[in-house]
Specification:
Blueprint (H helix, E strand, L loop, with lengths): L3 H23 L6 E2 L7 E2 H17 L7 E3 L12 H17 L2 H4 L6 H8 L11 E9 L1 H6 L4 E8 L2 E13 L15 E8 L4 E5 L7 E3 L12 E4 L7 H11 L6 E3 L3 H7 L5 E4 L13 H8 L3 E5 L19 E5 L3 H20 L2
Parallel strand pairs: 3-4, 10-11, 10-12
Antiparallel strand pairs: 1-2, 4-5, 5-6, 6-7, 7-8, 8-9, 12-14, 13-14
Helix pairs in contact: 1-2, 1-3, 2-3, 2-5, 7-10, 8-9
C-alpha cells in the first residue's frame, strides 16, 4: 500500500488522540471549557489531542521535515491564570503516551514547555509545495461537549493534493446509522476510517486490532431513495437551502444531522447518499474541516465538490475558496444533485433580490 509508513503513524496518532478525548468526555468538567474569540469552545481535549498527534508523528516520521497545519495554538494557554489547565493537559498527554509506552520513545516525561511546543508545531500555513499534515484535533467540538459525534481528523497533503486521510470517530456506531440519528446504547461504538490515494477506504473498530474492512459509498441511483446528511450546527449549514434541494430531488427521508467529519465516515460506508454543507455568508471553510473526510469519501467511490461542481482545492493555505458550499454524493446522483443545487440557489437569489 502507498504511504504505508505514514498511514501507520497517522492511525497510531489519531487513535491515541481519540483515546485521550474519550477520557475527557467521560468526565467533562466545566473548567475544561475555555472561550475562544470566535465563540467556539476549546477544551482540554482539543489541546491534548493536538499535542499527542504532533508528538507521535514527529517521533514516528523522523526522516522527513515535519509540517503540521492544525486548528489550535498555545496563545491562550500562555496567559496568566492558565497554569492549572496547562498542568492538567500535560498530565493527560503523558498518561496517554504512557499507555503505548511512548514516553520512552519521546525520551522522558513531558514538561509544560514541551507540551506548548508540541501544540505550536501546528502553526504551518500549508500551501502547494512539499508535504503538510493537516489536523483538526477535535472536529465537532460542540458535539463533543454535548456527548454526541466528533472526530479526530488527520490528513496528509503532498504538493497541494490529499494523499492520505484518517478519521477516528469515537462515538460513531460500527453499524449503520441510516435512518437513525440516535443509536441504541447496546451498539458497539468507535470507528477508525482510513484511506490512501489509489488504495480505497477501510474501516475498523477504534479500540481493537480487528482486520479492517473495505467500505464503499451508497450505490443508490434514485434520489427519492437517498438519505442526506447535514451539519447539526445551524451556523455550518443553511438548513432551509438544504431542504429546498432535497425537495427538488424528491428525497423523502428527513435529514440526518450530526456533527463533525463523522458524516464523511458514515457516507463512505453507505449510511447515507448525500452530504450538503452550505455555511452562512462570510464563513470561510478551513482545510482541516475537510481534508481527511474528502479522501475517505473519494477513495470509497464518492465525489466531493463545491456547489459549482469544482473539486476542493487544498493547496491555497489554511482556507478553502469555495463556490457557496460543499456537496458530496456518488457518481450516479451527483449530476442530479448539482442541478438541484443550482436551481435552489438561483431561486433563493431571485427571492432575495425581489425583497
Amino acid at each position: 500500500m502507498a504511504y504505508e509508513k505514514e498511514l501507520d503513524a497517522a492511525k497510531k496518532a489519531a487513535s491515541l488522540a481519540a483515546r485521550l478525548c474519550q477520557k475527557v468526555q467521560k468526565a467533562l468538567l466545566q473548567s475544561d471549557v475555555q472561550s475562544k474569540s470566535d465563540k467556539s469552545p476549546v477544551t482540554v481535549a482539543d489541546y491534548g489531542s493536538q499535542a499527542v498527534v504532533s508528538l507521535v508523528l514527529e517521533r514516528e516520521l523522523t526522516s522527513e521535515p515535519f509540517s503540521l497545519v492544525a486548528e489550535e495554538d498555545s496563545a491562550d494557554l500562555r496567559k496568566d491564570g492558565s497554569e492549572d489547565i496547562l498542568q492538567r493537559i500535560t498530565k493527560l498527554v503523558n498518561d496517554t503516551l504512557a499507555t503505548e509506552d511512548l514516553t520512552k520513545a519521546i525520551d522522558s516525561t513531558l514538561t509544560t514547555d514541551d507540551l506548548l511546543r508540541a501544540i505550536d508545531c501546528g502553526t504551518s500555513e500549508g500551501g502547494p509545495n512539499g508535504r503538510h499534515w493537516v489536523l483538526d484535533p477535535i472536529d465537532g467540538t460542540k458535539g463533543f461537549l454535548r456527548g454526541d459525534q466528533y472526530a479526530v481528523a488527520l490528513g496528509l497533503l503532498e504538493e497541494g493534493k490529499v494523499v492520505l486521510g484518517v478519521l477516528a470517530c469515537p462515538n460513531l456506531p460500527l453499524t449503520s446509522i441510516a435512518g437513525n440519528k440516535n443509536s441504541s446504547s447496546s451498539d458497539e461504538i468507535g470507528c477508525l476510517f482510513f484511506a490512501t490515494i489509489g488504495s480505497g477506504t477501510y474501516m475498523q473498530p477504534l479500540d481493537s486490532k480487528s482486520e479492517p474492512v473495505k467500505v464503499h459509498v451508497s450505490s443508490v441511483e434514485n434520489p427519492e431513495e437517498a438519505s442526506f446528511f447535514e451539519s447539526f450546527e445551524g451556523a455550518h449549514s443553511l438548513h432551509d437551502l438544504s431542504s429546498s434541494i432535497a425537495s427538488k430531488l424528491g428525497v423523502k427521508a428527513p435529514p440526518v444531522r450530526i456533527d463533525s467529519q463523522a458524516k464523511y465516515g458514515a457516507l463512505s460506508r453507505g449510511d447515507g447518499a448525500i452530504y450538503l454543507r452550505f455555511p452562512h455568508k462570510g464563513y470561510r471553510e478551513k482545510i482541516w474541516d475537510h481534508v481527511a473526510g474528502a479522501i475517505v469519501v473519494t477513495e470509497a467511490g464518492g465525489i466531493v465538490t463545491d456547489a459549482g461542481g469544482k473539486p476542493l482545492d487544498f493547496s491555497k493555505g489554511k482556507y478553502l475558496d469555495l463556490d457557496t458550499g460543499i456537496i458530496v454524493a456518488n457518481e450516479k446522483l451527483m449530476p442530479l444533485l448539482l442541478k438541484a443545487v443550482r436551481d435552489s440557489i438561483a431561486e433563493q437569489e431571485k427571492a432575495s433580490s425581489s425583497l
